[in-house]
Amino acid sequence: METKGTREFLAIYMNDHLAGAAGGVGRARALARAHRGSADGGRLQRLADDIATDRGALLAMTGALGLPVRHYKIMALAAMERAGRLKLNGRLRGRSPLTDLVEFEAMRVAIEGKAAGWRTLLVLADREPALDTGDLLMLLARAQAQATLLEELRAASVDRLFRGSVPLGVPARTGR
Known about the structure:
Blueprint: H1 4-34, H2 41-64, H3 71-84, H4 97-124, H5 133-162
């Protein structure tokens, strides 16, 4: 039997995930813009589009569950995501190869959180007719594919930074 407190917790939970999703959409779009025209640009644009679609699905589920959307949370986290772009990266101007590594890692963590959210909603789907198990399984599979892509990009970034491969746009050093 569902209590009023349980419903309130679900509303908080969904709104926290919506806020995280807003930040994720912003970060994914910024990554795609930064890599436009590169070998990974197309994959990152598709990732950003998928993350935006996932946010839309979460928003639709929140509405279908009859839960309020707390826009202040969404706006606050979106602002924090934009502020996070102002981090020091070892360069005064332009993107550093280190920026890619840190952003791929942060996005990977965010995607893992999103996947955990889909798994949580799958547990609730048998009691909540507004939650479709098939949709949730598809969203979970997509999150797992997104995590795999981000891990590939992260590993390639590590190779470029720390294993001697020269990052694009950075001249190779000769001698000592």
